[in-house]
Amino acid sequence: TVYEGILSDLHVVAIKKPKMVVRREIDEFINEVAILSQINHRNVVKLYGCCLETEVPLLVYEFISNGTLYDHLHVQGPRSLSWDDRLRIATETAKSLAHLHSTALVPIIHRDVKPANILLDDTLTAKVADFGASRYIPLDRSGLTTNVQGTLGYLDPMYMHTWRLTEKSDVYSFGVMLIELMTRKKPFTYMAPEGNGLVAHFAILFAGGNLSEILDPQLLSEGGDRIDEIAAIAVACVKLRGEERPTMRQVELRLEVAQSPKEFEADGDIAANSQLACGPGLTSRQYSMEEEYVLSARYPR
């Protein structure tokens, strides 16, 4: 349960409290403190501290007043968040995940990326939250074997099958979230007439050039010529084999390109030597680490 609280200096905070004294919940709280104490990023919710003087530990966060991305996306009526806001929020989320995977001292996998875990502040800036299930990945390992945790509909099928958690598991979950942003359909309940879930149906329609059948009508009126590019990124992220998915850094940069095409067209010297291997339908770019930082350094974190 999360409460709104006020400190003695009148600073408003959010206070997270376990519903019961259960070892797993306590372990998740300890894990969240360990993870968030290592992260300083504008798109990750800030942990101010914890209180251990109570029956169960309390976590104290910055107060984010505007609910979750899920709340804003799945509203009654034909119109929801604008396409520009959805795309910006997706890009901010990609930035934070790329930071966790490749910039943090020890790589961190969130393990439960979904709209309900993306908080929005008063300016609709994304704040990634809920790190109770997150895991460190040692620098000398490409993944780890662990019990499956996450939310059905967003879970990487390879992780579910093999129990092997990698950074590409977050990439898959992010791809599902991107599809949800484009369709306003919930991946844990959607079922196509043919029996396919949201991810499979979206990929089939994209491959057949029939994406308009599933897209949010609001997107068709606001998305312009960026729809196919964003859809291609989403389809690349949800490929069955993890090694065929892009990294979150590549996704971040591709989303930036989609939003600023004129600026990046001028960077022909960099773009000409770059290729992102994200599968059919996606512009091909492959970044060395040096090139990634040259491009991403323009955008504040």
From TrEMBL:
Example of a GO cellular component annotation carried by this entry: plasma membrane
Domain of life of the source: Eukaryota
Keyword DNA-binding: no
SUPFAM superfamilies: Protein kinase-like (PK-like) (SSF56112)
Keyword list, A-Z: ATP-binding, Nucleotide-binding
One GO biological process term: cell surface receptor signaling pathway
UniProt KW Nucleotide-binding keyword: yes
Gene3D superfamilies assigned to the protein according to its UniProt record, in alphabetical order: Phosphorylase Kinase, domain 1, Transferase(Phosphotransferase) domain 1
Name of a matching Pfam family: PK_Tyr_Ser-Thr
SMART domains linked: S_TKc (SM00220)
Protein name: Protein kinase domain-containing protein
Ranges for domain Protein kinase: 1-265
PANTHER family noted in UniProt: PROTEIN KINASE DOMAIN-CONTAINING PROTEIN, WALL-ASSOCIATED RECEPTOR KINASE-LIKE 21
